[in-house]
């Protein structure tokens, strides 16, 4: 189901994964309080040359940092000489173009008072989980892809954030990570892929340890992903993402309400579009039909609006954020913004005060180097996506889960450093390269679990033992089964570290598993095969189109009768039937059931891909929020 120039055809509804062209569908988190209505963007910046190293060798003339977080004499109060101002203007354009990716933006402006800006940055541990994924493998040229998790916090930890976010009664609670985007920059820096995960997604949150007080948060299943930030900080959200996607994360950047407002003011606004008049009471956004240049608090309102767009769920808000980011990249790459060095100084001050980053990214110099990588990507090779989803069978009106098949395909493409725009024909979706040849069959140990019992399908008794026995017959003498209950839509073969990749591939080949089923995971110690609901019979994984793999959709959510508006923006009941969306996905496949190479190597349509050069996108306004 393709989206048109109006963002919004796909929305949460009674039929998982389907969206009506009018943007109607089931609601999300109707009971949520205004304090949870978040939606910030994280963006990046800086580039060019001339930033001092981490020893601060170029700070003398710019001034030393003063006490209490204020610049010392000659710092923010002073103006740089004309030569530096001209140079800063050149640097600024590259800094600004990255602003839409990592809200830091103009860290390059730290040129003026480098050490002071370093002191503004807040730093935290990258990963609070017990285990970490191995780094992404380097390509033949020795280059590695870069994965950065961008987080928007709804923290009310300051009077300014309380004023912007509302809900003063929530000022003392731990913040939620209500905006989560993974930015993947290819190893050769030719393309960028962005994956948003809706805040309402149910996931497993791994065991995490708070680095400040040593408190241990036990692993929890079926938790909303935005609550992971409460378990010790952003490092637990990183751990949750690594477990969900199998993608190793190199850095994170987190921003709050005030940072978004200050950043948007400094860049002079970003063009966005709505297809009708919209008023969202909770976010405060009020806008007439057409294109508008949003900045300051209105930009924050745009990024926070949920009920006003599409079906009123977090999915629509994600699409609005993608539009904002793309528009900012295009506008700033044109070189029309941030030419005033004084504004750059203000922006650098605001950005560094608003940011929390991992310790390895905790200096202006390192942020500057990061922006230098980001600036190389043409806007036409940027692809924004949303994790394919279906309604959570246990709470279909409020939460979502990853869509079987499509979500794992999207994650697999990024793990394999394949551009989501389908323009990497020479690459195969095979994950990181093995560190060596596979071990002899008889020495490869694998534990097989039966995960065929899902919310919509009964368990197939003995499946784990059946497949384990088949592996033993093929020579994998150490294959064993475990009767611990599992429930999983997709079959997966997980391994703990890169050195086990070759053994995993040998097992996958023996069973006929697709490459996307093989992934590295922090949740296992050795090779672990979970037989999912997509493989209910036989000892060889069914090919695409086989009956055994057809029934793997989640249970349809609750719908309303045609013509009746539901709560929180829910619209009419869809006429679609379970499986329609999966059939639409098969349009790219020839009749033999095998997907085409093009279909294999591009983002699934259910991820709502948006190209960085798409200037026709316009947000569809929820019919209940028009005026």
Describe what you observe in this structure.
The protein is α/β, with parallel strands linked by helices and 627 residues long. The protein has a domain at 441-549: Alpha-Beta Plaits (2-Layer Sandwich), CATH 3.30.70. The chain is built from 14 helices and 25 strands. It has helices spanning 82-97, 114-120, 159-165, 234-245, 257-267, 296-304, 314-333, 341-354, 364-374, 406-415, 463-473, 501-511, 580-585, 597-600; strands spanning 6-7, 122-124, 146-153, 177-185, 192-196, 202-205, 208-209, 216-217, 220-224, 251-255, 270-274, 278-279, 286-287, 290-294, 356-358, 382-386, 389-391, 400-402, 446-450, 479-482, 492-495, 518-520, 527-531, 610-611, 618-619. α1 runs antiparallel to α7, α2 (114-120) packs parallel to α8 (341-354) and α5 packs across α6. Residues 1-84, 420-444, 533-627 are annotated as: Disordered. Residues 177-333 form the Cell envelope-related transcriptional attenuator domain.
Features:
single chain, 627 residues, alpha/beta, Alpha-Beta Plaits, five-stranded mixed sheet, 14 helices, 25 strands, 16% strand, globular, disordered N terminus
Short overview:
Residues 65-77 have a biased composition (Gly residues). With 627 residues, this protein is an alpha/beta fold.
